[in-house]
Amino acid sequence: MTTYIVTCPSCGTGNRIPAQMEGKHGWCGSCHAPLPPMYHKPQQLSGGSFDSFIGDYHGPVLAEFWAPW
Description:
Blueprint: E1 3-7, E2 14-18, E3 26-27, E4 34-35, H1 47-56
Antiparallel strand pairs: 1-2, 3-4
């Protein structure tokens, strides 16, 4: 099973998260604070979903913009 390490923003503990939990909030195993959702695949967003995704996601974001012109 593929797992990823998500660092707790409250206590700094590394938490092992299974890949199938992508995009879901979790809880730190040490201090029980909420963990940010983990994404390991690119997320395709639209003009309507971009602002809400950025507002709710507190991790690093790499954005690529494309236009047909």
